[in-house]
Design goal:
The protein has 2 domains: 92 residues, 3-Layer(aba) Sandwich (Rossmann fold), CATH 3.40.50.720; 47 residues, no CATH class. Helix content is 32%, strand content 25%. Strand 1, helix 1 and strand 2 form a beta-alpha-beta unit. The longest helix is centred in the C-terminal third of the chain and has 12 residues. With 151 residues, the protein is an alpha/beta fold.
């Protein structure tokens, strides 16, 4: 374990409850007060690391707003959002990155863990031929936790 304090942000109360149940230290509703709540939980500093699992413009803007100077912001979600990138558009020396997945061996390992039910959060498993349905369910907001597509 680390000394990190995990702050989960979501629009759905059930997603916040899930985050709490798997170890989040704080949960914050994703609304107009989210940035203030995160700053309060970080004693005004802002977040050292922000991982955006949605990738919509609103969540990416929130990520930039709550990142402290020299923070790392990683956009994992492929929600199609865009934010301006420039010297004055985020805190100084913030690193912003996107990622699609890790290495191929890491993906294989993750899929094997999910297939064995060892992923440490709630997952909905979809067979490969239901991959499009997984995306539909994610877009509709009916998946609690993660959607995992397995061969």
């Amino acid at each position: 374990t680390t000394g990190a304090q995990v702050i989960a942000v979501d629009v759905k109360p059930e997603a916040l409850e899930l985050a709490r149940s798997v170890g989040a230290h704080h949960t914050v509703p994703s609304d107009e007060h989210a940035a203030d709540a995160i700053r309060e939980h970080t004693c005004g500093r802002g977040a050292d690391v922000v991982i955006d699992f949605v990738g919509a413009t609103a969540t990416m803007n929130l990520a930039r707003t709550v990142a402290r100077t020299m923070a790392d912001v990683t956009i994992v979600g492929i929600g199609g959002g865009e934010v301006p990138l420039g010297f004055f558009s985020q805190p100084y020396e913030v690193s912003m990155a996107t990622t699609y997945w890790g290495s191929r061996p890491e993906l294989v390992e993750l899929l094997a863990l999910a297939a064995r039910g060892q992923v440490g959060t709630e997952s909905t498993i979809y067979p490969l031929d239901q991959g499009v349905q997984a995306y539909r369910d994610l877009r509709a907001g009916t998946v609690t936790g993660r959607a995992v597509v397995v061969p």
